From TrEMBL:
Protein name, as recorded: Probable membrane transporter protein
Protein topology in the membrane: Multi-pass membrane protein
Membrane-spanning segments: 46-69, 81-100, 106-124, 161-180, 192-217, 237-255
Record's keyword annotation contains Transferase: no
């Protein structure tokens, strides 16, 4: 692995990026919109796997504290949350294993289309996620939750940006949870996908530990503050942040596509 030059300035900037990313991620997912670009800019000499591994160290700190805060204050149903997290863990392991076989230039158009659909559906259905009306019962409910967990977990293992947002949307749009309950369950599943990826990255020696721990400290604080903000402000606030984060993803990825075409 390439050596990464570490300075106090770099560690301070990574802490700040982790703080912002942790807050966004705890509210609705999508903290990678801040965190991954910050790592790419701060560690230009690092290999891609080092960037991904270091990002996961930071992310799991934030998702840990956010999941714990949501659990204490929202009390999500563990009969759904735990199987969802287990399925996401297995999906992430599988996605990480096959990531190298998938052409990376195919991902951005797929993500942009998915985000357009997700964002438009949420924006033009103002009542979506405002109240909880579950669409399935019993085994059907659990089956849809686990299928969503496997598919989104595989995506996170293979690529990653927007995983938290996709989890929230699946729980709201497919299963009928309100945004606050969906965010609570999504945090537990997102923690599992991060843990699965680290099961592969840590033994490889891919984590840049000093940078990762500095960003993790910021992510932990941001995750705690974001979860408390979401619980205090309610589902309407989470929905608003969800639309803004999805819009930010579209601007960033759409801009990349345009630049690639020029």
């Amino acid at each position: 692995m390439p050596e990464v030059e570490i300075t106090l300035t770099l560690l301070g900037l990574m802490f700040a990026a982790g703080l912002a990313a942790g807050w966004i991620d705890a509210v609705v997912g999508g903290g990678g919109l801040v965190q991954l670009p910050a790592l790419l800019l701060g560690m230009p000499q690092a290999a891609p796997v080092q960037v991904l591994a270091t990002n996961k160290i930071a992310s799991i700190a934030g998702t840990s504290v956010a999941a714990a805060t949501y659990y204490r204050r929202v009390r999500p149903d563990l009969r759904t949350a735990l199987p969802l997290a287990a399925a996401a863990f297995l999906g992430s392991l599988g996605g990480a294993q096959v990531a190298a076989l998938i052409p990376k230039d195919a991902f951005t158009p797929i993500i942009v289309v998915a985000l357009l659909v997700v964002g438009a559906y949420t924006l033009f259905k103002p009542d979506l996620g405002s109240v909880q009306v579950l669409r399935f019962q019993g085994r059907g409910h659990l089956g849809v939750a686990m299928l969503a967990g496997v598919l989104i977990g595989a995506y996170d293992g293979a690529l990653g940006p927007g995983t938290g947002s996709f989890l929230v949307f699946a729980l709201v749009g497919l299963l009928g949870y309100d945004f606050l309950q969906a965010s609570a369950k999504a945090k537990m599943a997102n923690w599992a996908t991060n843990a699965a990826a680290l099961c592969l990255f840590v033994p490889m020696g891919a984590v840049v530990w000093k940078v990762g721990l500095a960003m993790a400290a910021g992510n932990l604080v941001g995750g705690y503050l974001g979860a408390r903000t979401a619980v205090a402000r309610g589902g309407g606030f989470v929905r608003l942040v969800f639309v803004l984060v999805v819009g930010g993803f579209l601007l960033r990825l759409g801009g990349e596509m345009v630049l690639d075409l020029l």
